[in-house]
Design brief:
Chain A contains three helices and no strands. Chain A is mainly α and 57 residues long. In chain A, helix 2 packs across helix 3. Chain A starts with a helix and ends with a helix. With 146 residues, chain B is mostly helical. Chain B has one domain. Helices cover 73% and strands 0% of the residues of chain B. Chain B contains six helices and no strands. Chain B is globular and about 45 Å long. The model of chain B has no long low-confidence stretch (mean pLDDT 91). The chains are: A mainly alpha (57), B mainly alpha (146). At the A-B interface, helix 1, helix 2 and helix 3 of A face helix 3, helix 4, helix 5 and helix 6 of B.
Chain lengths: 57, 146
């Protein structure tokens, strides 16, 4: 599971050009619309994933 | 001097991640678990970091050079494309599965946590696979140009 998660985070960081610190902190600090969209996307995906793993499975 | 400044910045960042609890995957998953026993504290960590960042980036934007005299390199892109959304979504799924994202995972790796070592190895593999795939997709076009 950790290996799958790491692989997804590695791919996603490069493909989405940023991570929690990059888009979530630095991007939002600069009021970047790109980063607002990216942060919304990874927050929503993270919340949905935790919902599935903790409450559905 | 540049290397020293980078080291100091990394040190402050790493300490911040440890103090705030970002390096604890259980806490991160608690933050993402809206339907369970939701722990909103990391929202304050992010809010605090953005507050500091807002003023820092505003000050940086007004300067042409860094304090050490280097060229100021700030991101310029403002467009929103499918890659950004798809990549961030893939990132979010991985983040929700493990409770680790790149910065805190590196700090946890430094703390000698085995799970972090596995995660970071897989993360680096993911980045290498991405680069290889990009090269594969763009290689024929580049060759044709040359």
């Amino acid at each position: 599971m950790l290996l799958v998660a790491g692989l997804l985070v590695g791919l996603g960081t490069r493909y989405g050009a940023g991570c929690t610190s990059g888009h979530g902190v630095c991007g939002l600090s600069r009021l970047s619309p790109r980063s607002l969209v990216a942060t919304g996307a990874f927050m929503a995906a993270g919340i949905a994933t935790v919902f599935v793993t903790k409450h559905l499975i | 001097m540049n290397a020293l400044a980078a080291f100091a910045a990394g040190l402050v960042f790493g300490i911040g991640l440890i103090v705030s609890g970002m390096t604890d995957p259980g806490k991160v998953i608690g933050f993402l678990d809206l339907a369970g026993r939701w722990d909103p504290s990391l929202a304050f960590v992010m809010g605090g970091a953005i507050l500091v960042g807002y003023f820092s980036f505003a000050a940086a934007g007004k300067r042409g050079r860094t304090l050490l005299g280097g060229a100021m390199q700030l991101p310029k892109r403002r467009d929103i494309d499918a890659r950004l959304v798809a990549g961030s979504t893939v990132f979010g799924i991985g983040w929700g599965l493990a409770g680790f994202c790149p910065g805190p995972a590196l700090v946890a790796l430094g703390a000698g946590i085995d799970e972090a070592a596995l995660f970071v190895a897989a993360m680096l593999a993911g980045m290498v696979i991405y680069d290889a795939a990009e090269r594969l997709i763009h290689a024929p076009r580049r060759r044709a140009k040359a």
